[in-house]
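Quick board copy: two proteins, each given as sequence then tokens.
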Amino acid sequence: MTAVPDFLNATRSSYDAMAPGYVEFARGELAAKSLERALLGAFAELAAAGGGGLPVADVGCGTGRVTAHLHELGLALDVFGIDLSPQMVAVAREEHPGLRFEEGSMLDLALPDASLGGLLARYSTIHVPDAKLPRAFEEFHRVLAPGAHVQLGFQVGDEPLRLTEAWGMEVSLDFHRRQPERIGELLRDAGLEVVSRVWRERDTDGPFPERAPQGFVLARRPSAA
């Protein structure tokens, strides 16, 4: 039996502990971020137009709020969520009973080859150590159909942030901040074509102030020859 990496155990147990507080904290987060909604809308349009009718996976879906947003855009997308944390999946199912949510790891997705018309990884690769990130991107390439897109969101920087407490709960979480150029390099190494890189300054106003700038990279699996 293959041993489960320590960071997966730590991430899973941390989000299990945070789930009750996180759902309330993040409930209005997307409504407060117009740029992110625009980027998600562009991703959804690309998935609807070029995904061949295949489902779209929100990998690291958390409470399912972004999964639901994609579903509600009216583009007839078959969207489902995957998350490492059983408690986050339970919250997502309760919050959005009409959508599908599954437990799983981006390092070993329980999906057939070329079975997705799009993949979103919004602030979920941030917990994957540098040494494991190529494995995640290889999985993204494997499950995407030719021509399908992947969009990533992450904090920009060079040094990780470690949290040991959240909402009064003990956690053990590393937030790996990365440069968009480096993310692009790793995606290309995994066989994906980079379409765009967006970088913005951190938001210091409003209900969701940020500690770092934010990055968003859109890539696609090349179409079959």
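And the next:
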Amino acid sequence: MSDDDARGGSGDFVRSLDRGLAVIRAFSNERDLLSLADVAKITHLSRASVRRALLTLETLGYVGSRQNRFYLRPRVLDLGYAFLSSSSRIDIVQDHLRRLSARIGESVSACEYDDGDVVYVARAAAETIMPIRLGIGRRLPAFCTSTGRVLLSEFDDAALDEYFRTYPREKLSPATIVDEQELRERIAEVRQQGWSLNNQEVDLGARSVAAPVIGSDGRYVSAVNISVSTSRVSVEQLVADYLPQLLDATRAMSADLALLDRRKTYE
């Protein structure tokens, strides 16, 4: 898409805002210090558009710069704070994550589906030696994550067809499955059993198991996973010892969210 193409074909679409948000999204844990050329390459925007966006964001305090490289400033957190602070749902999930993590001594996370990815919306990290940085707001491809396959398992055939037509699949590790037919089989298996196992498809040395949190309408609100080190926890142990505790926690989250919805109905 060129800089002058309007997404969605709406006259109300603000292209400059779209560019500014694209520039912010260019930064990540692995890309925390970027040049103007770097941002232009990542966003597929012209250097002139990127320059205007970066200088505007710097003036507003969202971006800093040193030696012709740019970085996000803490003020960017304000953009997500409204969502997190206003959501009783996130508070409920976060409380359950803390308790589950304390019981099992492992890191647990909650993710929601967004535009082909899963986004981390809550997390309770255990003090382990796992070198994985998965903060709130981190995005990973849905097709290769345990939480992503849980959320994709709720898609009907048409939605799943559209997903595979729309989103690319790149290997994040040598173990990442990218074949569409095999992925469809894995997703169908998750749909049948109600949980998903990931074995080093995102990071070598890490495996996880995930299950859905279900809203009062029966739809999946989010997916929660337990992440462990392959050096400490085998696949068999993950399924036999950790999965039952995960399922207990997600059922409790689902019940609390249903109660929250009922309370809001009466207010």
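Board note added afterward: Strands lie at 34-35, 63-66, 69-72, 107-114, 117-124, 139-141, 196-199, 206-214, 220-229.
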